[in-house]
Design goal:
This protein has about 200 residues and is mostly beta strands. It has one domain (about 5-15, about 25-204): Porin (Beta Barrel). Helix content is about 5%, strand content about 65%.
Amino acid sequence: MTARHLALCAALALMPATGALAQSAGDFTLGFGLHSVMPKDDNGDLAGFSSHVGDNAQPTFTFEYFIRDNLGIEVLAATPFSHNVDLDGLGKVAKVKHLPPTVSLQYHFRNSSAVTPFVGVGLNYTTFLSDKATGALAGNDLELGDSWGLALHAGLDYAISERGAIRVDARWMDIDSTVKLNGDKIGTAHIDPVVLGVAYVHRF
């Protein structure tokens, strides 16, 4: 999480409470935020070299529809994330872009305070939009396959008005992509990122 995220979290702790943000069946929310995708440290061997996928932050958007009181179905979208890929001993060898749309079933623990925790579980689909080989692999045809996997979500909504809240949340996504170079499989990238962010959420 960036210093800006941490500063915002600290500011929230000092804000006066305004009461819980109610979520009733038939309500829906829209969220607008900034999230950082942070792949795990070791992303697997590619062509015999240990790979490392870099972090990236992008604007994100959420839509959640409440099918029952406090129980909603959320869709996560974002602008494309861009990551550098390094191989040990070779340095930066690729730059890739992806979109990770995710659908989750979420339960919000409504209470009498301004803070509403929630947890969710769902399905992530990651599609790679641009795979460019660079450095030692420049000129080669690089391809990363799309991925389906489990997604977990947890966070806190801090009500700042009757319908608005600031959200601090964390996700984990199971993202495994088959990597091909000039049509030949050279390994699987185990990206499996933690995604941290802050957003404004408005209930309609």
